[in-house]
Amino acid sequence: MNLANRYRFHDLGLLLLRVGLGVMFMVHGFPKLAGGPETWAGLGGVMDKVGLGFAPTFWGFMAAIAEFGGGLLLAAGLWFRAACVVLLLTMVMATVMHVSKGDGFGGYSHALESAFVFLGLLFAGPGKYSLDERLAGSRLR
């Protein structure tokens, strides 16, 4: 029995996952980014739950940037692992926010699932169809 890796299209799978998720996070992040300081302050208020209650507008702006900019970097496969870390942290805080509001599983499951996806992608890497691979090649492996 040959136990060789038969996943010949894993790089294509990573590309589809990256682009699909990246675009979706850009779509979710843009209204938050365009919402301005009032929206950002509302978003950033969740940081109080982890002892960082100062500067909610700043934290909300950072969350909006993380979703939109992180989605863009994810889709392009540029600074991929940094984008995964930022998106992972943002989804952990989104999970905290939903749980602290008393939302049930249906309320926080999307954020928690996304956090697991970003954690997995952090380890898997962007694949060969990415700007990171194009620019740095084998130095990233």
TrEMBL record:
Keyword annotations: Cell membrane, Membrane, Transmembrane, Transmembrane helix
Sequence similarity: Belongs to the DoxX family.
InterPro entries: DoxX, DoxX-like_oxidoreductase
Membrane topology: Multi-pass membrane protein
An annotated GO cellular component: plasma membrane
Superkingdom of the source species: Bacteria
Transmembrane segments: 12-30, 50-66, 78-99, 111-131
Main location: membrane
Signal peptide bounds: none
Name this polypeptide is given: DoxX family protein
Protein location: Cell membrane
